[in-house]
Amino acid sequence: MSNLPRVLRSLRSGHRYILPIMSVRINRSSKLLRNYCQTRPESEVKVAIAATEHEEQQYEEDIKNHILEKALDFVPKHGWSVESISAGAEAAGYPGVTHGLFPNGGADLVHYFNVRCNDNLVKKMKSWPKEELKEPKVPTKFIENAIMTRLLMIEPYKDSWPKAMAIQALPNNVPNCLATLLSLVDDICYHSGDRSVDFNWYIRRVGLAGIYKATELFYLTDKSQDNSATKNFVSSRIRDAQLIQTAINMSPVSAAPQTLTAAFVTAKNILGINTLK
């Protein structure tokens, strides 16, 4: 079982922590211990061990999240890097070397930020009016608002976000990047009223993922007041997606080549391949 939570508790409280380096067997104690353990059902022991492990894992996870949350304050100065995590650890009351908890360095910080933003967006979408969702047409305003709300969460880190995107495009980080992106578009589709269980489920989500990644790139270069150019860009991309969906519904066979091409471009956008030169 990991001793990390106990070590971190000791470090934070300022006490020394000495790990056991050896054990000495005492026959009487061992015998008594064995006799005591034999009186307890094995299932109780397993449940107790599992509960303890879960508590320690949760404690460790809470510590990591606390450090990463503090590290975000240092991103404007140090970027998405180990230096930010180390500074965040010290701000949280732990030694700077605690950054060793994050083997992927800056990628772990970017992933935490994406997950946190996705969760915040879900909370906001749950409180938005649902009148438009009752209509049979696609709730474009709801989707536009969701995309813009999520993008504007990047605003405090806009200058350093290209570096974050480059980190996400590295092979080792692509799985986490895709997971958070697909979680984002699935949440938007679900809360916009999409309950489809057919092939359109995949089309809508892959299409929305492509729209979001394209808009994200556009947003980084947008200098317009109140990001009006980005808003117009989102509206245009959603209209294009609706036209493609209409073409597929009207003539699936003739639209197949264009659909495959669009899917290929979308996949490249999702993986960030178009940004790598």
TrEMBL record:
Domain Ubiquinone biosynthesis protein COQ9 HTH: 60-90
Key words of the record: Lipid-binding, Mitochondrion, Transit peptide, Ubiquinone biosynthesis
InterPro entries attached to this UniProt entry: COQ9_C, COQ9_HTH, Ubiq_biosynth_COQ9
Domain COQ9 C-terminal residues, every copy: 175-242
Principal localisation: mitochondrion
Alphabetical list of Gene3D superfamilies matching this protein: Tetracycline Repressor, domain 2
Coiled coil (UniProt feature): none
Subcellular location(s) of the protein: Mitochondrion
Tree of life domain: Eukaryota
Keyword Calcium: no
Family of this protein: Belongs to the COQ9 family.
Cited function: Membrane-associated protein that warps the membrane surface to access and bind aromatic isoprenes with high specificity, including ubiquinone (CoQ) isoprene intermediates and presents them directly to Coq7, therefore facilitating the Coq7-mediated hydroxylase step. Participates in the biosynthesis of coenzyme Q, also named ubiquinone, an essential lipid-soluble electron transporter for aerobic cellular respiration.
Protein name: Ubiquinone biosynthesis protein
Organism: Galleria mellonella (Greater wax moth)
Lineage: Eukaryota, Metazoa, Ecdysozoa, Arthropoda, Hexapoda
